[in-house]
Amino acid sequence: MRIYYASDIHGSRKCWLKFLATPKYYGADVIVVGGDITGKFITPIIRRNGHAEATFLGIKRKLKSEQDIAKLSELIANAGQYSVEMSPDEEQTYARDQAQVDALFQRVICERVEEWGRLADERLAGQRVRCFVSPGNDDSYNVDQALAKSKVIEVHDGRVVDLGDGFSMFGLGYSNITPWNCPRDISEEELAAKIDVLARQIERMDRAIFDIHVPPYDTGIDSAPELTSDMTVVSDSLGAPIMVAVGSTAVREAILKYQPMLSMHGHIHESSGVRKLGATTIVNPGSEYAEGILRGVLIDLDPREGLISANMVTG
């Protein structure tokens, strides 16, 4: 059995299309996204007297034709953002009312997730492949319902699933508390309890896969820039960011307690790698979604031998 695992694609349409191509490209039998599937920003496109304007990636752009608007909208979607066309009056209304902005954001992220579900249904049709997607800590709870509309996507967050050949997997999209107060940030105690509920349902840990969005603490796949209380990156004397471990102690303790065959993680974009924690292989593919680069881990399993290999791939 071959598994392709990715995480943290954050709304990038280009990354999603690449993900849907992985069964054919890599010969994967199972494909998995381990959380954080939605983007973070809306980019307004303001229509004014026969043209439009938008500021994208810090550059103010004047769009003279519908073709220009369509091209920019595609670039915005590929970078994981959401283009919304509006009038100058509508822009001012949103600027005065955060509640309306929040409602708009929830609408556009769900629309994209539903679009992705339709693409999955279309492109994976007739292929003998299973597609698992779990929300992550950045993803609102509305996303679960949007994912559920797909015919082929299996939402494995909070569930133990039988992969066949004696292998089982569960998904868990929560994280320990982050500085950003994300929708699925919870305490270490709550995280430990959720893992225990799922792990106790697994009969053979030597054939078990944990898909937990947040990586285990201090393992080399959870290093992120240190931040001050005002969210400024702490740098050394040469100006390089100082990296610190930000993973979950509950996840670390659970892996050491249960020792599954494999534990897959994301969450920390800049900390990709394949490591060992006790007898368990742990992986984090990292993320470069804003550039439209899909980072993944290609995992080969054998019914008799268990985990054969876990290799980083980029496409």
Question: Explain this structure to me?
Answer:
It contains seven helices and 18 strands. It has 315 residues and is an alpha/beta fold. The protein folds into two domains: 2-39 and 106-314, Purple Acid Phosphatase, chain A, domain 2 (4-Layer Sandwich); 42-102, no CATH class. The strands form four sheets. A six-stranded mixed beta sheet has the order 8-7-2-1-17-18. The model has no long low-confidence stretch (mean pLDDT 97).
List keywords for this structure.
315 residues; alpha/beta; Purple Acid Phosphatase, chain A, domain 2; 2 domains; 6-stranded mixed sheet; 7 helices; 18 strands
Write a short abstract of this structure:
The chain has 7 helices and 18 strands.
Intertermini distance: 21 Å
Write the element-wise H/E pattern from the N-terminal end onward: EHEEEEHEHHEHEEEHEEEHEEEEE
* Fold-level CATH name of the largest domain: Purple Acid Phosphatase, chain A, domain 2
Question: How many strands?
Answer: 18
Report strand %.
Answer: 25-35%
Main β-sheet, spatial strand arrangement: 8-7-2-1-17-18
User: Shape, please?
Assistant: globular
Number of domains: 2
Any low-confidence stretches, pLDDT <50, length ≥5?
A: none
Radius of gyration (Å): 20 Å
**Helix percentage:** 25-40%
Overall pLDDT level: 97
Q: State the major sheet.
A: 6 strands, mixed
